[in-house]
Amino acid sequence: MKWILRGLPLAVIFPVMMSVSLPAPAENRTDAETEAQEQEKYTREAVDRVVESHDNTLILKGGELMIRQQAVRAAHKLLVQWGREQDLGDLWWQDRPEWQAAKAELLAAGDKVLGTRFIEDAWLTEIWTKYTLENFSGEQASVIADHFQTEGGIKQRRLMDWYLGETTLFYYTFTDRFDYETQETQQQLKSLQRAALTRIPREDVHFSKRNPEAYAFIACSPDSEYCPGLHYWKMLTIPLMGAVFRHMEEVTREIEAAMIRSLPEVQRHLDAFRDNTRS
């Protein structure tokens, strides 16, 4: 650039530099820029319609149950650890009222994290929106959203929501991290059962004759941009649910960290046990 401008008078150089560095005024924006903005808005609106069409109840209630079970295990582990570190002896166990009081405080600390980081479902909407935006154009998202408003599409969407809820539970039952008898999670278990009872798929799932549009939604090549149904289901079951599981594991770690931080408040129960067993 220097050798190009060398020797030119300042009166020539300054206008050239200004024309290069200053952005074009808003009124001079090209039609392409305006069209791109409109397309982005259209895509976001279509994706929002897709995400809002789903019923996340089973994912959230199933996840709440499973995460709280991990919180119960974490509380037990910490109380055993602290008892060992403080030489509380073999009598320090879950049949002691001091243990139960300490455990209740730990679970209360965990429930605060569970409420803000999981039960409030903004995180799920954010994840769902992110993956849908990354995998589908505005036209494809609009096709999906419109389909979910049809008779057959409603049935398919309900089946999807059911299986995503089942997958949430399977993630923990398959890894042997669920105990049906855990007393501290009976409320969450019954809440999930009530929600599931009203969402059991009862509709005819043979779509080819009764709901041809539902059949067409999945009975086509997944590589076709005009056939987003199979691609969408694959996105839900693999990357989306993977992100859900990672979030659940992260919340579980945050719950244990909150419990560890609450030791100064819980310590009085350990001290009371020591005093009571010495007398």
Task: Summarize the SSE layout with pairings.
Elements: H1 2-5, H2 10-21, H3 31-52, H4 57-85, H5 97-119, H6 122-135, H7 138-147, H8 151-173, H9 186-197, H10 207-210, H11 212-218, H12 228-261, H13 263-278
Helix pairs in contact: 3-6, 3-7, 4-5, 4-8, 4-9, 4-12, 5-12, 5-13, 6-12, 8-11, 8-12
Account of the protein in words:
The protein is mostly helical. It is built from 13 helices and no strands. Helix 4 (57-85) packs parallel to helix 8, helix 6 (122-135) packs antiparallel against helix 12 (228-261) and helix 8 packs across helix 11 (212-218). The protein is elongated. The N and C termini lie far apart (89 Å).
Task: For this entry, give a set of tags.
mainly alpha, disordered N terminus, 279 residues, 75% helix
User: Roughly what is the average pLDDT, rounded to an integer?
Assistant: 89
Percent helix? over 70%
Count of discrete domains:
1
Largest sheet: none
Can you count the helices? 13
How does the helix and strand content classify structurally? mainly alpha
Q: What is the 3D form?
A: elongated
Rg, Å, rounded: 28 Å
Kindly report the oligomeric state of this protein: single chain
How much strand content do the residues show? Answer: under 5%
The separation of the N and C termini measures: 89 Å
Order of secondary-structure elements: HHHHHHHHHHHHH
- Tally of DSSP β-strands: 0
Low-confidence stretches: 1-6, 10-21
